[in-house]
């Protein structure tokens, strides 16, 4: 299954996704911005903090899990295999944090998005690790305001986007509460980073620590680094940026010392390249129900950050698999 077929099956399942949206994003920008933007109707915290003992921070990225995708074909078997794989990868890597970077469940056919959301949340919280969440273009339901509350109050959740359009930041500190770095989480809705997210970035107090950015839909520069042959890894489908025009990277530079961006969305790409000092890194698609398994083995991405010297923070990454093996571009 390729992306076009994947999107067409969403239509068959009752999701109003047109061919135009599949290629360029929805025509109605207000509809796109609504996804995950609705503010919670309850006062929620905006700050998140994760304390880390020692000099290493390990983040395990799972992306494009796609619970409930193609259940007519797979039943629950594919989703249960995905959960088992995630458990094994966690056992093998012992991360401090899980980064769930979008498309946790698949759409809202016939109003079933809430059911899918609740199932997905139970599976993630059962993993027993702190976790962050980015909205993906397939994470759809009817009541986003209520979901903002549920996400924030879920066990081990570091989600804090309830009042800021799904955008938030996480402070990584040592045991003495000294901030060592920040994680920036952006909601790319169904069109990539747009005016609303850029405005939020410009309204933020700039970070005085190194930053890693997590988002679902890739920035335009993901395509640039590959086309200019300054990226390494696996490229098996065109970069799907939808409406992002490349301007977001300037806002990221003003936000702070962003070292890297980690995205998902394109299931059979796994590469990285650096543009303007920021490494653009694809996560490895995780969910067995999502397309692409015949082209690229499902897995996760282990990101390791050296916190020993905050002024010279360095990160490395490798793709990891449930069988204990791993991969990185030569």
Structure description:
It is a single chain. With 330 residues, this protein is α/β, with parallel strands linked by helices. It has a single domain (3-327), classed as 4-Layer Sandwich (Purple Acid Phosphatase, chain A, domain 2), CATH 3.60.21. Helices cover 28% and strands 24% of the residues. The chain has helices spanning 3-12, 19-24, 29-34, 71-74, 77-93, 113-125, 144-153, 195-203, 220-227, 248-255, and strands at 48-51, 56-62, 97-101, 131-134, 168-173, 179-185, 210-214, 231-235, 257-263, 269-275, 278-282, 300-306, 314-320, 326-327. The chain is globular. The model is unreliable at 11-34 (pLDDT under 50).
In the residues, how many domains can be counted? 1
- Secondary structure: helix percent: 25-40%
CATH topology: Purple Acid Phosphatase, chain A, domain 2
Strand percentage lies at 15-25%
Distance between the termini: 28 Å
Determine Rg (CA atoms, Å): 18 Å
Q: Record the strand order, biggest sheet.
A: 1-5-6-7-9-11-10-8
Would you report the number of β strands?
14
Summed up, the helix count is 10
CATH class: Alpha Beta
Q: What shape does the CA trace take?
A: globular
Which architecture name does CATH use?
Answer: 4-Layer Sandwich
Question: How would the blueprint of this fold be written?
Answer:
Blueprint: H1 3-12, H2 19-24, H3 29-34, E1 48-51, E2 56-62, H4 71-74, H5 77-93, E3 97-101, H6 113-125, E4 131-134, H7 144-153, E5 168-173, E6 179-185, H8 195-203, E7 210-214, H9 220-227, E8 231-235, H10 248-255, E9 257-263, E10 269-275, E11 278-282, E12 300-306, E13 314-320, E14 326-327
Parallel strand pairs: 1-5, 2-3, 3-4, 6-7, 7-9, 9-11
Antiparallel strand pairs: 2-12, 5-6, 8-10, 10-11, 12-13, 13-14
């Amino acid at each position: 299954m390729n992306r076009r077929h994947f999107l067409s099956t969403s239509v068959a399942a009752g999701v109003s996704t047109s061919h135009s949206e599949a290629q360029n994003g929805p025509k109605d920008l207000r509809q796109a911005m609504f996804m995950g933007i609705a503010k919670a109707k309850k006062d929620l915290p905006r700050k998140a903090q994760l304390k880390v003992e020692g000099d290493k921070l390990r983040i395990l990225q799972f992306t494009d899990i796609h619970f409930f995708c193609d259940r007519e074909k797979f039943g629950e078997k594919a989703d249960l295999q995905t959960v088992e794989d995630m458990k094994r990868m966690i056992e093998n890597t012992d991360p401090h944090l899980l980064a769930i970077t979008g498309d946790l469940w698949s759409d809202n056919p016939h109003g079933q998005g809430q059911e899918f959301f609740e199932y997905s949340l139970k599976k993630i919280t059962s993993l027993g690790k702190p976790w962050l969440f980015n909205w993906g273009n397939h994470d759809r339901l009817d009541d986003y305001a209520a979901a903002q509350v549920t996400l924030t109050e879920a066990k081990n959740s570091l989600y804090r986007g309830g009042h800021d359009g799904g955008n938030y930041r996480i402070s990584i500190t040592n045991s003495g509460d000294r901030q060592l770095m920040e994680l920036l989480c952006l909601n790319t809705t169904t069109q990539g980073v747009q005016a609303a997210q850029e405005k939020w970035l410009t309204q933020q107090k700039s970070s005085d620590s190194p930053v890693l950015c997590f988002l679902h839909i890739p920035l335009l520069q993901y395509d640039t680094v590959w086309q200019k042959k300054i990226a390494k890894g696996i490229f098996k489908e065109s970069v799907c940026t939808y409406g992002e025009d490349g301007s977001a990277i300037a806002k990221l530079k003003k936000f702070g010392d962003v070292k890297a961006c980690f995205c998902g969305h394109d299931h059979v790409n796994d590469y990285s390249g650096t543009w303007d000092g920021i490494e653009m890194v694809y996560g490895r698609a995780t969910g067995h129900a999502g397309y692409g398994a015949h082209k690229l083995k499902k897995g996760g991405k282990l990101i390791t950050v050296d916190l020993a010297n905050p002024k010279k923070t360095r990160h490395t990454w490798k793709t990891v698999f449930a069988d204990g093996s791993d991969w990185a571009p030569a």
